[in-house]
């Protein structure tokens, strides 16, 4: 019962509701492992805390002795988006797919035991599927059914083109489950539709339908959209400890509970305790520090967590300019017209993307310090010298070499 | 100019409007034949006057020296309708496809020179199309585009299921034109959408787009729906002369002009003359006789046309019972309980499908004659004897043997 309760923890959608209990009983009765599938799109191999939510659930099954199957969507990745409309889906060649898969598996190893996982490429069966059999498969699904997928429906209603092959991709994902005879397919809640396709196709192939387990989508550190690379709001599993700490500290307070539940490995009791402390007036900043350290401990180690906290406090919380860590920057004389630069021109070296106007405003607002002295004059001449220290905004520290 | 005018004659849709002129000029300039495609569904090999409308137009091109290509849809026929919902589309094996194609070609020979036509099977290229390439092809078309096809749109709006492979079939038909590099695709007006698909796919494969020529759909002899086997309202190209004559005589008067234009091979002048006669009060029955004879002359010969007219006049117009042609029917004594039967039981032998009540009503209405005598008593006992002549309704004559 304790096991079952833990497996249900955090799950957003379980289909059918009592499916997991039945599958577990069945596996025990038949003395076999459950096959638990997770699909992976090899066009985007960078994993973040959002992926970790699903992977940690997979890990639980692995610890219970069940079989994890990672399906690399190599067939569809190699077709890409032939319309060329979706730039993130350009076709990959086999080498690129393999390279991305290797990167991905390396990152997976931070959470699951990859040695015990089965890693398969769906091009192994889809490359050789005769077109006539593919059509037989495709015929099992109706247009109206596919149009129920929210994004398809929205685009159809708004007259945004949907290329026909896009409609077929969910069917192929479902066919992977037929091929692998999966018991469970996992994903984020945005994968519910595609996973359900697997159930239907398994049934039409006279196989027991898989159950679908969808985990909640962790929001990104900006607190708006789901965490995703394209939104530039992720904490990556391979981020260095200082970056992880800083990013976690930047989340809005409303995300604290979500991060506690989905991003940390605190026990239920610990989480309840922390929530209680917040209610009693604990500073949210302190809770975020605990969350940040917990996250770093999961993907690096305890020491890295402590060090990152110290760094953060020195860098962003203590006022002393000298204690900061400065990024060492070499400026070749080639970059310079003379030995001295205006404040604006100096800052522009580090903030290439900002306009001169934006930099001038930063300076006038007092956001720029040079050698521990606030410079509010945009056109003051600054002499360029080794060890000149420049602070721009709250977080960026540079030292010339 | 005369040639061009004749090619345009009866055409319902020409896409683009001046496409035919351009294609003809191009062919002349390049000193080559035009390739003119007609698709054929090998699940329904029985040709009728509706098909003849298109085929006679093909024949015109053939007479000008161009290349007719008949595409047997063997790939899709062998897939059929895997959902099993559409019973007319059950999958055929290769033998059945070949058999149907042979039947079809034999019927084609009544109109076109099949020896000079190219007859191809689309399974030749679709069977070996790798699924990945099929997806590339499919991706060229959007869902919204396919949903413009009237029947798809209607079914989608009315929540009648459309299986996904149905959406793909028009794309495959279009691909046939890519494969064959057709200059012209012909069909009935109900094929406009599918033929246009060929234009689009040829363009996306950097080929010159075919022009689309759609002929009007001849209505069936009941004057309502288009002529089609499923509506049981056809005049078949292989119907015997008497059947052709009888069916033509049965068309409603409003169809006369349509049949004159689409089913006969009268010249424009002859048709104008006949129309003038109708305006001046000619009996439509006489015009239908001329149409019937013309049709029989096309698919049988002049003599057969004259004989059929004589038969029709004797059988249905002259009153003399003795002059009728009676179907010779052998009734084995096994069928009979005794030497005599009630009128109902006797009629039931020939009209198995009618209920006793329906037969009784026919008798009471005076529609049954036995040996030139109207019998209005359903339960009168009729002695069964050789050469007993029975007339039921207007058209059915039987003689016992």
UniProtKB/TrEMBL annotation, chains A, B:
InterPro entries: aa-tRNA-synth_I_CS, aa-tRNA-synth_Ic, Rossmann-like_a/b/a_fold, S4_RNA-bd_sf, Tyr-tRNA-ligase, Tyr-tRNA-ligase_bac-type. Gene3D superfamilies: HUPs (3.40.50.620), RNA-binding S4 domain (3.10.290.10), Tyrosyl-Transfer RNA Synthetase (1.10.240.10). Keywords: Aminoacyl-tRNA synthetase, ATP-binding, Ligase, Nucleotide-binding, Protein biosynthesis, RNA-binding. Transmembrane segments: none annotated. SUPFAM superfamilies: Alpha-L RNA-binding motif, Nucleotidylyl transferase. Belongs to the class-I aminoacyl-tRNA synthetase family. Its EC number is 6.1.1.1. It catalyses: tRNA(Tyr) + L-tyrosine + ATP = L-tyrosyl-tRNA(Tyr) + AMP + diphosphate + H(+). This is Tyrosine--tRNA ligase. GO terms for molecular function: tyrosine-tRNA ligase activity. CDD domains: S4 (cd00165), TyrRS_core (cd00805). The gene is tyrS. It holds the Pfam family tRNA-synt_1b.
């Amino acid at each position: 019962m304790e096991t079952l309760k833990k497996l249900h923890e955090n799950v957003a959608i379980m289909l059918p509701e009592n499916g997991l209990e039945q599958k577990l009983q069945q596996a025990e009765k038949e003395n076999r492992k459950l096959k638990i599938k997770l699909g992976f799109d090899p066009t985007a191999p960078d994993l973040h805390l959002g992926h970790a939510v699903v992977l940690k659930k997979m890990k639980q099954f692995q610890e219970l002795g069940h079989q994890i199957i990672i399906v690399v969507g190599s067939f569809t990745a190699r077709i890409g988006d032939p319309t060329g409309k979706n730039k993130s889906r350009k076709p990959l060649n086999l080498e690129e797919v393999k390279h991305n898969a290797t990167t991905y598996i390396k990152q997976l190893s931070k959470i699951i035991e990859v040695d015990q996982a089965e890693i398969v490429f769906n091009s192994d069966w889809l490359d050789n599927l005769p077109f006539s059999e593919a059509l037989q498969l495709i015929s099992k699904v109706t247009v109206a059914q596919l149009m129920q997928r929210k994004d398809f429906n929205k685009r159809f209603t708004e007259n945004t083109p949907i290329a026909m092959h896009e409609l077929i991709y969910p069917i192929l994902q479902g066919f992977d489950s037929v091929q692998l005879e999966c018991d469970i397919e996992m994903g984020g809640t945005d994968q519910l539709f595609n996973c359900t396709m697997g159930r239907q196709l398994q049934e039409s192939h006279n196989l027991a339908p898989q159950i679908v387990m969808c985990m909640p989508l962790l929001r990104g550190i900006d607190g708006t959209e789901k965490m995703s690379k394209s939104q530039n709001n992720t904490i990556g599993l391979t981020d260095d400890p200082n970056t992880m700490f800083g990013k976690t500290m930047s989340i809005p307070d409303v995300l604290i509970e979500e991060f506690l539940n989905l991003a940390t490995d605190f026990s239920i009791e610990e989480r309840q305790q922390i929530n209680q402390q917040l209610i009693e007036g604990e500073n949210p900043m302190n809770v975020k520090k605990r969350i940040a350290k917990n996250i770093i401990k999961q993907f690096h180690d305890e020491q890295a967590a402590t060090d990152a906290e110290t760094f953060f406090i020195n860098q962003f919380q203590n006022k002393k300019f000298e204690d900061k860590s400065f990024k060492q920057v070499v400026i070749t004389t080639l970059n310079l017209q003379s030995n001295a630069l205006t404040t604006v021109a100096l800052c522009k070296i580090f903030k290439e993307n900002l306009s001169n106007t934006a930099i001038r405003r930063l300076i006038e607002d007092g956001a720029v310090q040079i050698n521990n002295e606030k410079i509010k004059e945009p056109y003051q001449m600054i002499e360029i010298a080794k060890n000149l220290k420049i602070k721009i905004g709250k977080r960026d520290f540079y030292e010339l070499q």
